[in-house]
């Protein structure tokens, strides 16, 4: 069996070589390529003979349709929707597995970091000091006693609830599966979406991106938010109507936002968010810690081992 990693970055390569290379070579013939292929032709040349892929990025249907030997893809991540068309893969006889819940700590901590950066005006004050300006830009926000509304309570939302409560914040949550037991365990309150939008000083998004959650937050939802609320998104850009978000920020409906995910990545220099001084941006790095990448690789390789043994796990198609 041939396993190919067609598009490793530096961190992935180093952790793989340090921790997992011997394991992969015992499992099968293994080949690693660095960097994204420059074309579909180059991509196909890298994986044409592969039986399985360890996928550290995206793959197009045009490439998949020409991979007659390929039977399995272990996607190194949770949210696969923007990276591999799992329905098309299934039609080609290719099973796809993901790495669920690998980076809850990393992403929740990043969401909190964005919130603190926004609340304390850290990027703007830092930029002012670099320019020799010793003056506060705006009043900072104290988080103790504020109400944070979490939309979604999976592993990341759960961790975020714990971090926020540790800072003295009141946590309300909307989820499709509320339960009295979880509310008691986490010390939070489940509410309707309408109540969450109107009550929350801060709203943090923690839903997965699916057909059902596409543009889940649009103009009506932003209009229903508390005046001067702060919005944090470390989930997926597609869950939010970007025009509605921009309008809420430019109109002052939202006081500020911290954003880690975007409709187009890399973010265009012409994107309106870049020019807004009430927004803190980061380049989709919420998951990007050594611990998180190690966890991704561990689960992804377990997926390959299970496939090789004839009992694949974590399948998404």
What does this structure look like?
- This protein is an alpha/beta fold and 317 residues long.
- The chain folds into 2 domains: 2-102 and 289-308, NAD(P)-binding Rossmann-like Domain (Rossmann fold, 3-Layer(aba) Sandwich); 104-281, NAD(P)-binding Rossmann-like Domain (Rossmann fold, 3-Layer(aba) Sandwich), CATH 3.40.50.720.
- It has helices spanning 10-27, 40-47, 61-64, 86-91, 104-119, 122-130, 155-166, 180-186, 193-199, 219-224, 242-251, 290-308, and strands at residues 2-8, 29-34, 52-55, 72-75, 95-97, 147-151, 170-174, 189-190, 202-205, 229-233, 254-259, 279-281.
- The chain has a 7-stranded parallel β-sheet with strand order 8-7-6-9-10-11-12, with helices on both faces.
- Strand 1, helix 1 and strand 2 form a beta-alpha-beta unit.
- Helix 5 (104-119) crosses helix 7 (155-166).
- The longest helix has 19 residues, at 290-308.
- The protein is globular and about 60 Å long.
- The two termini are 22 Å apart.
- The relative contact order is 0.14.
């Amino acid at each position: 069996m041939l396993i190919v990693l067609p598009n490793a970055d530096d961190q992935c390569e180093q952790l793989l070589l340090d921790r997992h290379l011997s394991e992969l070579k015992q499992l099968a013939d293994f080949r690693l390529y660095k960097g994204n292929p420059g074309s579909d032709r180059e991509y196909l040349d890298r994986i044409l003979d592969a039986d399985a892929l360890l996928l550290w990025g995206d793959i197009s249907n045009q490439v998949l349709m020409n991979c007659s030997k390929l039977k399995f893809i272990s996607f190194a991540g949770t949210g696969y929707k923007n990276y591999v068309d799992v329905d098309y893969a299934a039609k080609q006889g290719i099973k796809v597995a993901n790495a669920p819940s690998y980076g809850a700590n990393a992403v929740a901590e990043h969401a909190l970091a964005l919130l603190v950066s926004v609340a304390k005006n850290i990027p703007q004050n830092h930029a002012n000091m670099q320019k020799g300006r010793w003056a506060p830009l705006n009043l900072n926000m104290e988080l103790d006693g504020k109400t944070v509304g979490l939309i979604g309570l999976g592993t990341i939302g759960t961790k975020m609830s714990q971090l926020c409560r540790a800072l003295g914040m009141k946590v309300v949550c909307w989820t499709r599966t509320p339960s009295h037991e979880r509310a008691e365990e986490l010390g939070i309150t489940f509410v309707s979406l309408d109540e969450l939008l109107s009550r929350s000083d801060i709203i943090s998004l923690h839903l997965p991106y699916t057909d059902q959650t596409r543009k889940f937050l649009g103009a009506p939802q932003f209009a229903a938010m508390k005046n001067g609320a702060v919005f944090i998104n470390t989930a997926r850009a597609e869950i939010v109507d970007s025009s509605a978000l921009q309008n809420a920020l430019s109109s002052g409906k939202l006081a500020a936002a911290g954003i880690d995910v975007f409709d187009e990545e890399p973010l265009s220099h012409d994107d309106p968010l870049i020019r807004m001084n009430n927004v803190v941006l980061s380049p989709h790095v919420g998951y990007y810690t050594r611990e998180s990448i190690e966890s991704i690789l561990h689960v992804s390789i377990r997926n390959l081992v299970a496939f090789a043994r004839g009992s694949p796990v974590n399948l998404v198609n």
